Amino acid sequence: MIPIRDKNPSSTFPYVTIGIIVVNVIVFLIELSLGTRLDGFIMEYGVVPLKVTYYSQVPDLTFMNTFFPFISSMFLHGGFIHLIGNMWFLWIFGDNIEDKLGHFKYLGFYILCGIIASSVHVFFNSQSGVPCVGASGAIAGVLGAYMITFPHARVVTIVPLFIFLQVIELPAMIVLGFWFVIQFFNGAASISASATSGGVAWWAHIGGFVSGVIIFFIMRIFYVRKPGRYR
């Protein structure tokens, strides 16, 4: 399933969502300009589980070069498809969560989900020396919050039916619930994979989504900007 757009208008302008997208694009352009220095840049600012695992045992590891990447990695991407896919999902679903929480709380929510997502990835890949980059974990938190807040919101979605592609409207619960199930099964299958191999950080997606549900539920108890609307 590929979501195209949702039919769930927000009542405020999504400054933070657009700002996050712009920053990600700018950082990606910087990545493209680095040439042969890109690998070192990704290693420095991406989350490397081995650094975290052996932080206290390796003198050369500092707090900044080990843990700052839990934030900086959210703004790095491995290619055009990686960037476009993430920003597309954020554009579709982010504005409504920003509308619900307000701009500043939404930014805090986004960053916190990203940090937790990377932490879950490190837990399941503690011996990996491969840097993990991407906004997927933070955006997964937004998806989790959207699913529990607007479960019946209509999402215009491309659905493959055998050899045909059908564009239909589906409830957000179906679209995002299906997305999470795919992440979970792939994450379970990846547990036995080599710690030195690259690929998709499935557990970052899972951790981000679940943390988004839990954190947003807690925030909704104490503070919600305005009642949700969908049609």
Summarize the structure.
This protein is 60% helix and 9% strand. With 231 residues, it is mainly alpha-helical.
Oligomeric status of the shown chains?
Answer: single chain
Taking all residues together, what is the mean pLDDT?
Answer: 89
CATH architecture title? Up-down Bundle
Report the β-strand fraction as a percent range.
5-15%
CATH superfamily: Rhomboid-like
What is the count of DSSP helices, taking H or I runs of 4+ residues? 10
Residue stretches low in confidence (pLDDT < 50, at least 5 long) are: none
What name is given to the CATH topology?
Rhomboid-like fold
CA radius of gyration is 18 Å
Number of domains: 1
- The count of strands amounts to 3
Provide the structure class: mainly alpha
By CATH reckoning, the class would read Mainly Alpha
Distance between the termini: 20 Å
Helix content: 55-70%
- Succession of helices and strands: EHHHHHHHHEEHH
Membrane topology: Multi-pass membrane protein
Protein name: Rhomboid family protein
GO cellular component, one term: membrane
Domain Peptidase S54 rhomboid: 67-219
Features:
9% strand; globular; 231 residues; Rhomboid-like fold; single chain; 10 helices; mainly alpha
Describe the structure.
Helix 6 crosses helix 7 (103-124), helix 6 crosses helix 8 (136-149) and helix 7 runs antiparallel to helix 10. A hairpin with a 2-residue loop joins strand 2 and strand 3. The chain starts with a strand and ends in a 9-residue tail after the last helix. 40% of the residues are buried. It has one domain: Up-down Bundle (Rhomboid-like fold). The protein has helices at 15-33, 38-45, 49-53, 63-67, 69-72, 80-101, 103-124, 136-149, 172-190, 202-222; strands at residues 2-6, 154-161, 164-171. The chain contains 10 helices and 3 strands; from the N terminus they run βααααααααββαα. A 3-stranded antiparallel sheet has the order 1-2-3. It is 60% helix and 9% strand. By secondary structure, the protein is mostly helical.
